[in-house]
């Protein structure tokens, strides 16, 4: 049993998805599956029941999880006790912010060579909690939050992308209207997982005589490519980034835009490294 296997195990427990856990740990899905299988063999117990649509923890997992977290916390404490490097800044985000964040981290490190800046992958709510509890110095989110003791700075605004499969009835068009899209099922994660996205879509359709036709919810990790291939008459909305295997359409009557913000404690701007990092994120 290795500490990295416990870290992968905790990631799968928290994400309830091997693909999301792999993204969070910066490894391939096959690699994380292999390491979990090794851990199961070492422990002589099945840790997850795997189906085509879900990852379900077993009773053994529920007993192991608190112990695994204690082990990883102890490892962090040991490293902190012997660390001789300079100040440490932790930025909580998800993989969709990686490219812009890593450029900003490089700029901050160039300005503060002694600083250690860590990029931490966490789900939305855990990012907010990590900043509030002092585990992280700042977090990147889409939208905003209103929580005592925390400040929010808007960094940039993203244009959302309309995506369809090559078999969709609208595939031959370069531009469409919201009314064109209305009859076709819209695939989004559950509203409780993506409140801002659902609110944005409903607001866009508010002035039209027709509204969106919501299809069945898709997984929160937004594995849209496979879902659209399975339901070629559907469409979805993606954040900026690669859309391999899909076609994108331009809306002529509406721009779907969403703000990206930094969440930080109210006194965080007193730290010059945080200032440099935020300025670099603003510049993009």
Automatic annotation (TrEMBL):
Top-level taxonomic group: Bacteria
Keywords: Activator, DNA-binding, Transcription, Transcription regulation
One term of GO molecular function: DNA binding
Cited InterPro entries: LysR_HTH_N, LysR_subst-bd, WH-like_DNA-bd_sf, WH_DNA-bd_sf
The keyword DNA-binding appears for this protein: yes
Similarity comment text for this entry: Belongs to the LysR transcriptional regulatory family.
UniProt GO cellular component terms: protein-DNA complex
Domain HTH lysR-type: 1-58
Record-linked Pfam families: HTH_1, LysR_substrate
Organism: Nocardia asteroides NBRC 15531
Protein name according to UniProt: LysR family transcriptional regulator
